[in-house]
Design a protein that fits this description.
Blueprint lengths: L11 H7 L6 H34 L8 H20 L3 H20 L4 H15 L7 H13 L1 H4 L3
Helix pairs in contact: 2-3, 2-5, 3-4, 4-5, 4-6, 5-6
Amino acid sequence: MSNAMFVQWQNPLTALTAKPGGVRVGAALGKAEQNLALIRDDCVASLDALLAELLSLCGRGGPPPSDEVRGEIYRISNEIHGIAGVFDLPELGRAAYSLCELVDRLATLGRWHQASVDVHLSALQLLRKPGSAADPANLLERLRALVAQIDVISGA
């Protein structure tokens, strides 16, 4: 019979952070904030292009979109959600998330409900213009309620 030997595993990240001369957390966060400030205007401006692409993809009033187009609508909405989260646009991010949820639920039901999508697109456009929504919290609550009722609304 052989003797068992135990070897203590060393986490490389722990070893790296224990070395002297590294960057302090506060300094790293400060640098990250500076870097984000440099790209903020371009990233926030890209929201307008993403919204325009969404409007085009949704084909207001047209036939139900293909699965590929639905996937693109979801992807773009998710991208808007991500940009809004990074650049402190929480209402816009929540509306984009709601559109993702709507598209996902409709796909699960095998349906499409253009009017509900259009409501989300209008909300996104409204929330993109700061100060234009009288009560963003109420608007977001109504979007949430709409998504919650989608199985009834879409005739499932």
